[in-house]
């Protein structure tokens, strides 16, 4: 007789974790953060509550990991697009924001990708839910900023500092404040939903912002 192959527990665990993360995103999209529960996530994922508590201490922790996983998968597409603008050398990691030597083109590429993410129905609903809850839940908001926003904003700081070194941005400009000129308008329009969020709008933001950051004659 052929030996019986033992079940792969790690593969089963991966399937369960994926089911839980997907269930959490589905529920927060359908009913909002406050009405999403551990019980609801477990039922949607087809697992027991104890399975969820084995890996996460709370609903917020599950949803945060689910959102970070979703954002990471989305970022893979952005990274592929960035690489097409400037291939990294052997052994180098593709940067979050390309550095082709053309600051305006690089920023437009990334802001257009951000527009696409914010307009993506798969990302939009959970992003809005966690953004709104983070306003009233200081701990969740701080975790959202620390785990998701700060690493992304650091990429802008790195690119703007590189532009300062090449003379494309004034030396006295604070990159951390300057990046808010780029991100702030996008988020404002997205949150209020007053006007369409488009690539053309992203391009205009870059043109206006870089015009103010460039060295003066």
TrEMBL record:
<feature type="domain" description="HTH tetR-type">
    <location>
        <begin position="14"/>
        <end position="74"/>
    </location>
</feature>
<keyword id="KW-0804">Transcription</keyword>
<dbReference type="Pfam" id="PF00440">
    <property type="entry name" value="TetR_N"/>
</dbReference>
<feature type="DNA-binding region" description="H-T-H motif">
    <location>
        <begin position="37"/>
        <end position="56"/>
    </location>
</feature>
<protein>
    <submittedName>
        <fullName>TetR/AcrR family transcriptional regulator</fullName>
    </submittedName>
</protein>
<dbReference type="InterPro" id="IPR036271">
    <property type="entry name" value="Tet_transcr_reg_TetR-rel_C_sf"/>
</dbReference>
<keyword id="KW-0805">Transcription regulation</keyword>
<dbReference type="InterPro" id="IPR001647">
    <property type="entry name" value="HTH_TetR"/>
</dbReference>
<dbReference type="Pfam" id="PF16859">
    <property type="entry name" value="TetR_C_11"/>
</dbReference>
<feature type="region of interest" description="Disordered">
    <location>
        <begin position="78"/>
        <end position="98"/>
    </location>
</feature>
<dbReference type="InterPro" id="IPR009057">
    <property type="entry name" value="Homeodomain-like_sf"/>
</dbReference>
<dbReference type="InterPro" id="IPR011075">
    <property type="entry name" value="TetR_C"/>
</dbReference>
<dbReference type="InterPro" id="IPR050109">
    <property type="entry name" value="HTH-type_TetR-like_transc_reg"/>
</dbReference>
<keyword id="KW-0238">DNA-binding</keyword>
